[in-house]
Amino acid sequence: MKHHPFLLVVATVVATLTAVHTMGCGASRSARSLAAEQVYVAPGELDKYYAFLSGGQSGSVFVVGIPSGRLIREIPVFEPRAAYGYAMNDNDPRRQELVATGGVWADTHHPVLSETDGMPNGKYLWINDLANGRLARIRLDYFETDRIVKIPNLQGAHGIAVVSPNTKYIVVNGEFEQPTDGLLTNPAPYTSVVAFVDPDSMEVKFEVRVNGNIDIADTSKDGRYSFSTVYNLEQGKDMGSMIQYDRDAVAAIDIPAAEKAVAAGRGEMRHGVPILDPESNPGVLTLIPVPKNPHGINVTPDGRYAIAAGKLSPTVTIIDAHTLKIVAEPEVGLGPLHTTFDNRGNAFTSLFLDSQVVKWNIDKAVAGAPDYIVDRINVHYNIGHLQAVGGDHTHPAGDYLIALNKLSKDMYVPVGPDLPENQEIIDISGEKMRLLASFPTPPEPHDATFMAVAVLKPLVHQTYTPAADAVVAGQERVVRTAPHAVTVDMTLIRSAYTPDSFQVREGDQVTLKVTNIETIRDMIHGFALPDHNLNIALAPGYTKTMTFEASKPGVYWYYCTNFCSALHLEMRGRMMVQPKDSTVTLADWHAAANVQGQVVPGVPSTGAKP
Amino acid sequence: MKARALHVAAAALMAAALAFPLWGFAMAAPQYPDETLHLQVTRTGIAGDVLEVSTLQHFIGVRFPTDLPELKWATRAIVAFAALLLVGAFVGAGTAGRVYRVLCAVALVVFLIASAGVVQARLYQVGHDRDPGSPLRGMHDFTPPLVGPARVGNFTVWSFPHAGAVLLLAAAVLTVAGSRKAAV
C-alpha cells in the first residue's frame, strides 16, 4: 500500500500536536488535582473553618465552609425570609425592630466577631447596615439575629470594628456627613461621628465628632485606639471637590481619653447620646495624614502597626499603633483597598485596579528594604476586601485567604445580565500564593471573618429549648378572647397540626401561637396559610406568635412547607372563616365542615377514597 | 466464699438491679447520624427517646406499649427474691437450710427464664399486633430477638439486657453457686 507524502506530513503534524497537547494537559491536570484535593471536603466530613460573609444588599450574612467554599447557611438579618420564618409577621420582634429603625432591607458590609483576649469567642457576630445607619447582632449559639438598633446621629453606618481584646465596644463609623444639627437650619459644614456601642445592651455609649467621611474601622489590640480612615476632609459635596486635598487622614480615637471626657460630662447630648467635640476635648482625636481618599485600615495581629490602604494612591501607609507616627509608606500596586495577615510577618493587600493580591513583608517594608514584595497573584476581578483566616485577630492561621471580588465576568456560566459575585480561595501557606478554587454567592459579600470549626461547633445548638410560653402537647386550644378576637395555641410534630382545624368569623383578629414540639434536630416544620400573607418555618422547639385578620370567608388549608416526613404532604389543617352574615351557628358549621371521607373496609390501599 | 456470703451478695445485687434499667433498645437509621435512639425498660416503664420513637412507630402502626403490668409483677418478684435470698443466708447449714437454698436457686432460675419468655412474647406482640390502618405499606410483621439486631423498616433495632438484667443474672449465678455449698 502506497502512502501519499502529503498525507504522511499531515499525519505527523497531527500526531505531534496531539502529543504536545496531551503533555500540556498532564502537567496542568496534576496542578489542578493538587488544588482540588486541598479544597475537597468529602461528603460527611466537615470544613475546617466557618467563614462569615456579609450579604451586602441581600441584607444578610452568608456562612460558607472553608476550604470547600460551600454555602452552608444564610442568616437573615435585615430582610424577612419566609424560608427561615424570619421577621415575616407584624408580631415578630425582629420585624418590629426593622420597621421601627428604617425598613426591611439593608446594605450589610462588615461582619465582626466578639473577642476574648483578641480571639473570637463564638458568642456574637455584629453586622452593619450602611444604608439605614443600623447595627445588628447575631447570636452564634443559634445563628440568629437577636438585636437590631439604629445608631443615632449618623447616616451611613459603614466601617465597624470590635474594640480588642475583650469586646469593650463596637465601633461604628458614620460615612455620610450631616449638618451638625441634623437639619437644614445650620449653615455650618457637615460633620459625622464615630459611635461606640455597648456589646451587651447595644446602646450607644458615646460618639466622637469627625469632619469628613468616616470609612473603614479597626482597633488597636490593646484597647487604646480605634482607627478610622477618613476621606473628603475637604467636606466637598460632589465628587470633584472630594478629591482636592493631597492628603486625608486616619482618625485615631483615644478610647480611655474619650471615656474620661464623657464621664466628666464634656459630651453634648443629642438623641440621648453624648457627642464629644474633638476641638474642645484635645487628646481624644488624632488625625494622621495619609494619601487622599484612603480606604481600608487594618491592625497587624501583633498590634504594632495600623496599615491604611491608599486606594487612589498605589501605597499603604504603615502607622505605629502606639505612637501614631507614620513609619513607612511602601508602594504595593494599583488600587490598594484592604490588608490582611499571615502568622509569618507577611501582609496581603487587595489591589482593586490590578485585580491582584500582593503579598509583602511588613518588617522589610518598615526597614525600607527594596525586596519587601514577596508575591503577586491574579484574582477575578476587581477585588474589594480580602481576609486571611484569623488575619483580623491576634493569631492568624496562615493557611487560607479569601478574595472577595467585585466582578465575576466570565467565571461562571452566563445567567443573564445580573452576574453572581465571585470569591476565590487562595492557599497562603507557602512562599508563593496558590489560587485553589472559586465560589459564587448572591449579591454581595463585602467582607468576611472566620472562626475555627473546632472552636465554634461545640457552642452551636441544633434544637431550641422550648421557651416558657411554648405551647405544650395536650394544651392546644382555640379561645375567643374578645368579640372579634380569637387565640389559637397550636403544636406541630410529624405529621400533624394540633388542632388540625379551627373556626373563626370573618373579620376576627387571630393570634396564632405555634410551637414545633419536635426534639430531633433538623425536624423543621413550616406553617403556610394561603391568601393571608403568612408563611413561617419553625425549627425544633421553637415557638412563634403570629397575628392576622381573617378577612375573607372560606376554607384555608394551612400546610407544612418544610418537607418533614413520609406524611409531609398530608400534614395540613383547615382554618374555616365563617361569613359575617351567616345564620349557621358555629357548632352546626363545625359539624358540617368536619364530615370526613368514609374509609371503606377491605378496599386495598390503591383504591381511591370517596 | 461460703453460702451465706454468696446469698447476702446475691440479695444485694437483686435489690440493686431495681435501680437500673432492665432491658435496653438501640435504634439506628441512616437519617439519625450520631443520634441513635435509645429506649430503656425500667421498673416503672419505658424511658429514653420515647417521644421520637412513638412518633416514628405511628408510621408503621406499632402500638407503643404504655401499660406494662408485668413490670409491676417483676418488681414485686425481685423484692421478694431479695428477701428470700437474705433469709437463705441465715437458715443454717442443716438439711432444711440447704433444701431451702436449692429451692430458692431453682425458683430464681425459673423466674428469670419465665421473664425472658414474657419479654420475648411482648416483643412478638409489638411486631405483630399492629394497626392495620397505619400509613406505610409493605411493612412486614417482625419479632425483635431478646438479644441482638432486627431490621424494622429503615431501622436496625438492637435489643440487649441493661445493667439491671445483668445484675439479676449475676445474682442468679451467685445463688446457684451458694446453693451448692455445704458450709454456711
Brief summary:
Chain A is mainly β. Chain A folds into 2 domains: 50-459, 7 Propeller (Methylamine Dehydrogenase, Chain H), CATH 2.130.10; 477-593, Immunoglobulin-like (Sandwich).
Gap between N and C termini of chain A: 81 Å
The tally of structural domains of chain B comes to 1
Radius of gyration of chain A (CA) equals 30 Å
Q: What is the CATH superfamily classification of the largest domain in chain A?
A: YVTN repeat-like/Quinoprotein amine dehydrogenase
Percentage of residues in DSSP E strands of chain B: 15-25%
Helix content of chain B: 40-55%
* Rounded average pLDDT of chain A: 92
- In the sheet with the most strands of chain A, the strands line up as 8-9-10-11-16-15
- Biggest beta-sheet profile of chain A: 6 strands, mixed
Q: What structural category do the secondary elements of chain B indicate? A: alpha+beta
Side-by-side strand order of the widest sheet of chain B: 3-2-1-5-4
Proportion of helical residues of chain A:
10-25%
Number of strands of chain B: 5
> What average pLDDT do the residues of chain B reach?
93
Written overview of the protein:
The complex is a heterodimer of chains A (610) and B (184). Chain A is mostly beta strands. Chain A has 2 domains: 50-459, Methylamine Dehydrogenase, Chain H (7 Propeller), CATH 2.130.10.10; 477-593, Cupredoxins -  blue copper proteins (Immunoglobulin-like, Sandwich). Chain A contains 7 helices and 40 strands. Chain A has a 6-stranded mixed beta sheet with strand order 8-9-10-11-16-15, with helices on one face. In chain A, strand 8 and strand 9 (170-176) form a beta hairpin. The N and C termini of chain A lie far apart (81 Å). In chain B, helix 1 runs antiparallel to helix 3 (69-88). In chain B, strands 3-2-1-5-4 form a 5-stranded antiparallel beta sheet. Chain B starts with a helix and ends in a 5-residue tail after the last helix. Chain B has helices at residues 3-17, 50-60, 69-88, 95-128, 163-179; strands at residues 23-28, 37-42, 45-48, 148-152, 155-161. Helices cover 53% and strands 15% of the residues of chain B. Chain B is of the alpha+beta class and 184 residues long. Chain B has one domain. The A-B interface holds A 493-494, 517, 519-521, 565-567, 599, 605 and B 32, 35, 51-52, 55, 58-59, 133, 135-137.
